[in-house]
Amino acid sequence: SKARENQIKKTKTVCIYCGVGCSFEVWTKGRKILKVEPKPESPANGILTCVKGKFGWDFVNSPDRLTKPLIREGDKFREASWEEAISYIAKRLREIKEKYGPDSIGFIASDKMSNEEAYLLQKLARAVIGTNNIDNSARYCQAPATVGLWRTVGIGADSGSIKDIEEAELIIIIGHNTTESHPVIGSKIKRAQKVRGAKIVVMDVRKHEIAEKADLFIRPKPGTDAAVLAAVANYLINEGWIDKEFIEKRVKGFEEFKDYVKQFTLDYVESISGVPKDQIVRLAEVIHKAKSVVVLWGMGVTQHLGGADTSTIISDLLLITGNYGKPGTGAYPMRGHNNVQGVSDFGCLPNYLPGYQRLDDENAVRKFEDSWNAKLSTKAGLQIPQMIEGVLEGKVHALYIVGEDTVMVDCGTPLTRQALEKVDFLVVQDMFMTETAKLADVILPASASLEKEGTFVNTERRIQRFYKAIEPLGESKPDWEIIQMIAKALGADWDYKHPSEVMDEIARLCPIFAGVNYSRLEGFKSLLWPVNDYGSDTPLLYVNSFATGDGKAVLHKLSWAPPDLKDEVHRVIVNTGRVLEHFHVGNMTRRVEGLRRKVPETFVEISKELASKYSISTGDTVLIKSRFGGEIRARAVVSDRVQGDEIFIPIFASDPSKGVNNLTGLEVDRASGTPGYKDTPVVIEKVEGG
Ligand code: SF4
Question: Mind listing the UniProt keywords for this protein, alphabetically (predicted)?
Fold first, then answer.
């Protein structure tokens, strides 16, 4: 009614940008978003917020939103009814499954889906189609961190909460631009330094804002951070600055580890990393002096071909110094997307069932088979880069992509585009006509988070509810409803009336979510998993034992070798990352005018050395050509944030031709399957008259 449209409605919601998981009350009038108000009871952020969470919501009412299902006809799309679109998808998927088998179909989940939606997508893949080919974009970012933590302590997630980061005496930040990627945590860290005198160490190839504030800034050559950390471990062991009691009681493999790190002498590591010996010693000293140490890391660690190894040595360092299981300690891989943690936790991984239950655990598999009334495959599925390769090799014939702009975010844009053009059948479920959607056979219009209910998990394993503030735009539908329609059209007997029923099923099947339900998450209430039957949660992991078979952590050796990136021609290395104003490639923030005005265009940061070598000044257009084939043009910003033979290009792409993944190659980290985004050698030249 008119009267209701004029009323202001306040709804609790959770930010859909980064992994801090800020929660707010959003004020709406009709469809209009009036303001976003953080509340003191917001568990992750209190009254803090950043520019994206506060002002980044207008995309919800963007005229670019998709509002009707679309079916391809030749080079164009035509509007279709939901019935027609769904039955067409079901028919094609059934045909492809019959002809080529269930493993010829792959599913890619968005890290912005709710937990319930992620669970249903993997259930569609596993129980209805019969394949484990389900993955999510954690593959592009933090999968190496997960591997490093699985190897050593057992759980691929932050070992404590944001509170522990705030309480630590020493905060080490490696390959992570905290201020721009996780702004609220960045503010909390700076406050800890100012108010409590916490020490900050930053190790990064780029001198970003938090690096300027650091008590110690270490700038290794790209790909050598693992060696620097191994040298620190070696030094700590030699000086006897380790926690012997902790190691004896709780850690295995110390003697082998000690022998392994011996090769990382100060002289050797200085020569390969460019980090002066005295800085390595200083880092060892501050670790030794601090009563509690946390390490935060991001894509600067994980988007390298040795990302899993660097993540492993971080965890090793924490173990030998006893920095796990106590307040103010632990390992914190910073989750990028708001729900990248949850989408993995709730089962969109090719090698794990929901709640990290293993495919080779017969009891777990039987439990899911009984509940889902289906026979499950126990063969691990394909990771995203393998699905793309599978298409090019003629093994994968259909892809179902939810809310992911695969063309732009996957490495090697030209080849990814080729694969998505080639695949027999492509379904894309999204809010916008992305570069990926443009290649689809069917596009299904999805609703925004403000238009539905569900839960997200932030970087600290905190599960939070978000509520519906406005109705779905046009004929768009929440992802969980769309997935259920597809499952039903394929013969499944699903009948979920509300996401809370999905969560109840998850709680019955997954021990780590045993006590999770919607009433325990009412309003601003939240739970950090694991949550036991009685609803008590776990802010701090590993207090008494590690999540390994016998409860002991394992020191893990590396398979590290010095990086070999450049060739004779391609002497410059591209680094990539976020900018504060835009999220990721910018599919949402580009549609928020205020944010677009602040950073309208993709740029390239160039070191002073390179600028003078190539006579480039700020504002010049630069042509960047990759060793892997692609090229892009962008405006130069000469800056001492980068040094030596390095340039920085944000992942924010103001148009598709400026996407940094036009440059990246297809090589992946062997242990985790994550592409080496930041291992891209290029040549640069100034474009005359540009
Ligand atoms: Fe909070 Fe991150 Fe959202 Fe900013 S983008 S408001 S820091 S959750």
Answer: 2Fe-2S, 4Fe-4S, Iron, Iron-sulfur, Metal-binding, Molybdenum, Oxidoreductase, Repeat
Q: 24 lies in a domain? A: yes
pLDDT, one tens digit per residue, over 323-364 is 999 999 999 998 878 898 999 999 999 999 999 999 999 999
Q: How far is the CA of 182 from the centre of ligand 1 (A)?
A: 7
Residues 584 and 613 in one domain: yes
Whether residues 630 and 671 share a domain: the answer is: yes
Among 308, 333, 358, where does a domain finish? 333
77 lies in some domain: yes
Domain that holds residue 99: 70-139+338-396+404-445+473-497+505-510
Q: Check pocket membership of 595 for ligand 1, CB cut-off 6 A.
A: no
Residue nearest to atom 2 of ligand 1 (CA): 18
- For residues 659 and 632, the answer to whether their CB atoms sit within 8 Å is yes
Closest atom, ligand 1, to C-alpha of 185:
7
Q: Would you say 220 and 232 are in contact if contact means Cβ atoms under 8 Å apart?
A: no
Instruction: Identify the three-state secondary structure at position 189.
Output: helix
Could you give the CA distance from residue 344 to residue 331 in angstroms, rounded to a whole number? 18
The question of ipTM being above 0.90 is answered as: yes
Residue-wise pLDDT tens digits, 402-455: 998 887 776 767 788 889 999 999 999 999 999 899 999 999 999 999 999 999
Structure-token match 């050796």, residue found: 557
pTM for this entry? 0.87
